[in-house]
Amino acid sequence: MSAPTKDANIEQPIDREETVDGQSADTRGPRRALTVPLPRVRLDRRRLGLGVAVIAVLALVIGCAIAWRSAASARDDLRAGQADVAAVSELARTYTQRSLTYDYRKLDDFFTAVTTDVTPALRTKYGQVRDTLSEIMTKSQVIATGEILGTSVTASKPDRYDLLVFATQKTQNIQQAEPGEAPNLLKLTVVRREGKWLVDDYASR
């Protein structure tokens, strides 16, 4: 009895990779995303520290500059204020002395003196009382001399100062041949008009 033979029609397994649509089975798996490695940045600590130091120095310099400008501005304002006080105080002294010094024989000089360095408003007031004052001074034959003892600023606003002036006045007239001295306290208002200090008001207090 002969040994059985293998069926010639049975396909034998093929020792190769199966393909689908002409592609290898290995290529059918999920595709990997393409990644590009980024270059690593290496920080230079010395350069970083130098940059921070430079920024700090610049900030310090800017801060000092701002502080210096502020201090300079405040100093200039203070100096300007002191200069204004000195100017108005000197004007108050000289004007008060002129107003307290007169001679009935030289009334034109007196009215010229008291209408100098004044505002138009105060000049108008003197113009309104000139005739009356001239008559009184002439009849009493009054002669007077003023002396200033001191000045004091009592109030201030931009371009305006109120002052008190302490003075004495020696007077003599037809009824008092010997000069007599009396204290005087005068109140003045000084204003700045077009860059010039002028007396705007003047009165006894």
Overview of this protein structure:
This protein is α+β, with helices and mostly antiparallel strands and 205 residues long. The protein has a single domain (56-204), classed as VirB8 protein (Nuclear Transport Factor 2, Chain: A, Roll), CATH 3.10.450.230. 41% of the residues lie in helices and 30% in strands. It has three helices and seven strands; from the N terminus they run E-E-H-E-H-H-E-E-E-E. It has helices at residues 45-100, 107-114, 120-140, and strands at 19-20, 23-24, 102-103, 143-157, 160-173, 176-193, 196-204. Strands 3-4-5-6-7 form a five-stranded antiparallel beta sheet. It has a two-stranded antiparallel ribbon with strand order 1-2. A hairpin with a 2-residue loop joins strand 1 and strand 2. It is rod-shaped and about 100 Å long. The termini are far apart. The relative contact order is 0.10. Mean pLDDT is 81; it is low at 1-10 and 12-25.
